[in-house]
Design goal:
The mean pLDDT is 95. The chain is globular, with a radius of gyration of 22 Å. It is of the alpha/beta class. The chain has a 6-stranded mixed sheet with strand order 1-6-5-2-3-4, sandwiched between helices. Strand 3, helix 3 and strand 4 form a beta-alpha-beta unit. It has 3 domains: 149 residues, HUPs (Rossmann fold, 3-Layer(aba) Sandwich); 115 residues, Serine Threonine Protein Phosphatase 5, Tetratricopeptide repeat; 146 residues, DNA Cyclobutane Dipyrimidine Photolyase, subunit A, domain 3 (Orthogonal Bundle). GO terms for molecular function: deoxyribodipyrimidine photo-lyase activity; DNA binding.
């Protein structure tokens, strides 16, 4: 069995999804979530399997025609990242082939045409991708394995069940980190003959013709895709931002966050590499706070999507919160805004409008502001179901790091108390945690944040 040939650190991050006879063709790595050549356990698993079987190695990526409301600017970021990735892989004599269509079926059919010997794919619990994996397992002509290259501790090892809170998850994952938070081996080049007969990277220059995505938001000029840009941002954060992270992270008016989430989302940056570099720095309140977000909170979101079949829907919220929200379903709302008013930042709350403008223009809203933003949508919607759908729609359409377990978990926390506890009861919110403008004003300079985003809006007009 090919997996037995994997090095121990790669093997323990990999699990077999489908067994069966192997073809005489190449080993395929279906890359989806982790779009990088370096620090990629899934690519390493495919590499070692190809070596053990003496077969060529091919990397496939399938461009889905639509994905959870992603817009053209998301597809543009993805496409440019793939172009850069193709060059990085080519330097190691590993070809990247781009497919288009329904991902699981397209990869399965390509595996048939190549008489593939083995398929390795990325672990990804995002709800929309469940059908992709099912389609692959149904159509693949050979064994299929998945490798968790996105989490530091593979999600199925970190916990065997859906966790109630960050506290319960932290107690499980923290003792494991010393054995899992290691350096990551560099993949060695394949022989030049590995490229013989391969299909060149065929991502069309005019790829929008292949997708049916809305044209949402403005061009993203402040951020560049790819592994090099991600590594540069990580270095900048380590040198200039980490020291004051604990102090500045909850002030949306400051540049106190790492800014790494878009690259982590697209897989241009490894969370394990990031955590390894942070741990190599001085142990401080800031480094501990950052690792809490990067490891516990981020991997808790994967835990939720892995074990909750209804993740990403209102029914996936905790029962206590849904019951409490239902009890307050008919409470008067201070305002009611439809999705168009929300999308256009036309509310009575200048702080909320500033957060929405930040997201529309930059494709990235400050983390604290995103919590406030989602909770106000609950307060201004005619039902909690409507609020959940609106928040998820806007998050996925505009955020670079939307369409992700973190986005689902964050909105589920804000609107439905996921991983939280009941709070004192109040109108509309019931026992779900409440946030308001005056509370924000006590925490940071709200006026400065509003002015910053008003200036941002004027600069693009």
């Amino acid at each position: 069995m090919p997996l037995s040939s994997l090095p121990p650190d790669t093997l323990r991050r990999t699990r077999l999804l489908k067994d069966g006879p192997s073809g005489s063709g190449p080993v395929l790595y279906w890359m989806s979530r982790d779009q990088r050549a370096a620090d990629n356990w899934a690519l390493l698993a495919a590499f070692h399997t190809a070596k053990a079987l003496s077969r060529p190695l091919r990397v496939l990526f399938c461009l889905a025609p639509s994905f959870s409301g992603a817009s053209f600017r998301h597809y543009g970021f993805l496409a440019e990242g793939l172009r850069l990735l193709a060059r990085s892989l080519a330097a190691k004599n590993i070809p990247l082939e781009i497919l288009a269509g329904k991902p699981g079926l397209s990869v399965g059919n390509r595996a048939h045409s190549m008489n593939a010997s083995f398929i390795v794919t990325d672990f990804d619990p995002y709800p929309e991708k469940r059908s992709w994996k099912a389609d692959l397992l149904e159509t693949a002509p050979c064994p299929v394995a998945e490798t968790d290259a996105h989490n530091i501790v593979p999600a199925w090892i970190a916990s065997p069940k859906k966790e109630y809170s960050a506290a319960t998850f932290r107690r499980k994952i923290s003792p494991l980190l010393s054995g899992w938070l290691t350096d990551i081996p560099e993949i060695q080049p394949m022989p030049p003959t590995n490229r013989d007969g391969s299909v060149p990277c065929n991502l069309p220059e005019h790829f929008p013709a292949l997708v049916s995505a809305p044209d949402a938001g403005f061009p993203l000029e402040w951020i560049a895709p790819g592994e090099s840009a991600a590594a540069a941002r990580l270095r900048t954060f380590l040198e200039r931002g980490l020291g004051k992270y604990a102090q500045d992270r909850n002030d949306p008016g400051l540049d106190g966050l790492s800014g790494l989430s878009p690259w982590l989302h697209f897989g241009h940056l490894s969370a394990q590499r990031t955590a390894y570099e942070i741990c190599a720095a001085e142990d401080t309140e800031s480094s501990r706070a950052f690792l809490e977000e990067l490891i516990v909170r981020r991997e808790l979101a994967d835990n939720f999507c892995l074990y909750e079949e209804a993740a990403g829907t209102y029914t996936g919220l905790p029962g206590w919160a849904r019951k409490s929200l239902d009890n307050h379903r008919n409470d008067p709302r201070p305002f009611l805004y439809d999705i168009q008013a929300l999308e256009n930042a036309q509310t009575s709350d200048p702080l909320w409008n500033a957060a929405q403008k930040e997201m529309i223009i930059r494709g990235k809203m400050h983390g604290w502001a995103r919590m406030y933003w989602a909770k106000k949508i609950l307060e201004w919607s005619s039902s909690p179901e409507e609020a959940f759908a609106a928040a998820l729609f806007l998050n996925d359409r505009y955020e670079l790091d939307g369409r992700d377990p973190n986005g689902i978990a964050g909105i589920s926390w804000a609107i439905g108390g996921l991983h939280d506890r009941p709070w004192p009861e109040r109108p509309v919110f019931g026992t779900v945690r409440y946030m308001n403008y005056s509370g924000a004003a006590r925490k940071f300079n709200v006026k400065h944040y509003i002015e910053k985003n008003d200036f941002l809006e004027r600069s693009i007009q």
